[in-house]
Design brief:
Layout (H helix, E strand, L loop, with lengths): L1 H17 L6 H8 L21 E11 L8 H14 L12 H4 L2 E2 L3 E5 L12 E5 L5 E2 L22 E6 L1 E2 L4 E3 L12 E4 L17 H10 L35 E2 L2 E2 L17 E2 H13 L14 H8 L10 E3 L6 E6 L4 E6 L5 E3 L6 E7 L2 E7 L1
Parallel strand pairs: 1-3, 1-4, 1-6, 5-7, 6-9
Antiparallel strand pairs: 2-12, 8-9, 10-11, 13-16, 14-15, 14-17, 17-18
The structure holds zinc ion.
Zinc ion binds next to helix 5.
Length: about 375
């Protein structure tokens, strides 16, 4: 009987999870009556060597009705770090891309940064916390963007990527506005608070911050890889045509439209731990969008952190991937190791040289938790 209860539990959990709508951007656009990508002007000759120089200034509006919705600064920081990894092909899962697609991996070269000034020029954290009487906002509505409807008005959308983090009803994880689709005061990205940032204590396929990676892809003019099915209208030849979204975490290869599907693309619908790459065309398309459609972002100088600075300062250990030891710079402290499902695997103590011995771990992706900071690493 106990086994039966366990089975029922897992079936019901899976049923709940399968009801989640990975992304509501297409529904949002249909509501607007928009069905086709905004064409970008391709006349700007991009200097590929300088792709790392684009800083994206971000303000995160956290709309909360109770304490659980008022997510921590750490969660926000983990999201920014995750974005910077994903948009620079520094994410650990990039090592698992099948040989067939390795040459297609694109480095977007965006460095997301929390703005360090408010609209009045005062020093600011980049995290705008606002209490709301609204218990939940209807999925892919615009109420969270309007102060007179319980939301918060955006900061200048020409010069900021506005991200609203709030409680969304209707099983929506998030949605975004594509360039030119809406008026300025509605422009930006909306993410349900449960799926913003990395939270490995949250048992969900969407706990690694990839909802924001995906939605910001739309914000910079990317379509879903399965857009228009086998007709392949996502405007990128290096994403194979795909008849429909892929869910879960499928093994390679999966076939669709008589070719192998790039299920690990950030613009498909797979679980967070199973999406890993943008293509070169997608990266180019986003850079074109930045330079042509969203160039005001480049003129916001309230972010000054380089990719290298933010990456080095936010990573509390090295190397990654690692085979035998992780150097955490602190001696005789305990760290906890979790697997990708959030299960605690082991607790390890650093030696006097600040090294953690991970030689006995099986190869794979893990999380190291040290002093309330959680970082991803790969054991090879
Ligand atoms: Zn989407």
């Amino acid at each position: 009987m106990r086994i039966l209860y366990v089975l029922i539990f897992f079936v019901s959990v899976n049923t709940c999870l399968s009801q989640k709508n990975r992304c509501s951007t297409d529904e949002y656009r249909a509501q607007l009556g928009v069905f086709k990508t905004t064409e970008t002007n391709h006349t700007i000759d991009l200097d590929i060597a300088n792709i790392n120089e684009h800083t994206i200034p971000v303000v995160v509006h956290i709309l909360y009705n109770d304490a659980s919705q008022n997510i921590s600064d750490e969660r926000v920081y983990s999201q920014i770090e995750s974005l910077n990894n994903d948009y620079n092909a520094l994410n650990s899962e990039i090592n698992n891309i099948p040989d067939q697609f390795i040459d297609e991996i694109g480095q977007v070269g965006f460095n997301f940064c929390l703005v360090q000034q408010d609209p009045n020029g005062n020093s600011f954290s980049g995290i705008n916390r606002v209490y709301t009487d609204v218990e939940s906002f209807q999925g892919f509505s615009d109420s969270m963007k309007k102060s007179n409807e319980g939301g918060v008005d955006p900061w200048d959308t020409e010069t900021h990527l506005n991200i609203w983090v709030c409680n969304l009803s209707g099983n929506t994880l998030g949605f975004a506005t594509m360039p030119g689709d809406v008026s300025d005061e509605l422009d930006g990205v909306v993410i349900d608070y449960l799926y913003f940032g990395i939270d490995i204590s949250f048992i969900s396929p969407y706990n690694l911050g990839r909802t924001a990676t995906h939605e910001i892809g739309h914000y910079f003019n990317l379509e879903h890889t399965f857009y228009a099915g086998c007709s392949d209208w996502d405007e990128c030849d290096d994403t194979p045509p795909t008849s429909s979204p892929t869910y879960g975490c499928p093994s390679y290869p999966q076939t669709s439209c008589m070719t192998n599907t790039m299920t690990m693309n950030f613009m498909d619908y797979t679980d967070d731990q199973c999406m890993a790459m943008f293509t070169q065309c997608q990266a180019q398309r986003m850079r074109n969008c930045l330079l042509n459609n969203r160039s005001g972002l480049i003129n916001n100088y309230s972010c000054t952190t380089s990719i290298e600075e933010s990456y080095l300062s936010s990573n509390s250990f090295y190397p990654n991937p690692a085979s035998n030891f992780l150097n955490i710079k602190e001696s005789h402290v305990f760290v906890e190791i979790f697997d990708v499902m959030g299960r605690k695997i082991i607790e390890l103590k650093a030696n006097q040289r600040g090294q953690i011995n991970i030689s006995k771990l099986n190869c794979g992706t893990y999380f190291l938790k040290l002093q309330n900071k959680t970082k991803q690493f790969i054991k090879i």
